[in-house]
């Protein structure tokens, strides 16, 4: 949104990507201006002081921490076997590891991030998605953020319920104990603090799509390839 609170569409965001690159060269003031113009998010801090590090955002002022022991992800909607998955339940499902660049729509990128967790197709198979299913809706336990994918997108092997990152658990600031990773799309599709998954009959626009961002957020066709993660 702009300073008056009006939504800023993704075309405007993409037009600002060049400014994001300039910010890497000329300093933090330009990048901070881009960040303020793009979205009303509350920064939680930087992983690294350099421009190439992660930047943590939340659409609410604060998100209560959940321990791995207490966390549950509910999976329901158009499924045969709705259930709530504890972290231990996720660990018993087939595990997938991928390494991929993480790209934010505002211009910053972190290369070669190692992720691990349950490929979303394996989770959908565990609950038995209905033949009427056409999309998957995701809810953050921050109580506000939502995202969605078509069923075809959700069945890619590079879409994970991520429980691990860089050889450790996903931290709270990175969206843990478990988050969504949609590796071939911009970071706003990779919902943090994953609390609920609902299989539905149509795509439901998410938090940022309601504010002008694209529903399909492919970084680029070169990143849309099937890398056959293990």
UniProtKB/TrEMBL annotation:
Keywords: Membrane, Transmembrane, Transmembrane helix. It holds the Pfam family Oxidored_molyb. The chain crosses the membrane at residues 12-31. Residues 65-208 form the Oxidoreductase molybdopterin-binding domain. The keyword Metal-binding does not apply. The keyword Transmembrane helix applies. PANTHER family: OXIDOREDUCTASE MOLYBDOPTERIN-BINDING DOMAIN-CONTAINING PROTEIN, PROTEIN-METHIONINE-SULFOXIDE REDUCTASE. This is DMSO/TMAO reductase YedYZ molybdopterin-dependent catalytic subunit. It comes from Actinomadura namibiensis. The lineage of its organism: Bacteria, Bacillati, Actinomycetota, Actinomycetes, Streptosporangiales.
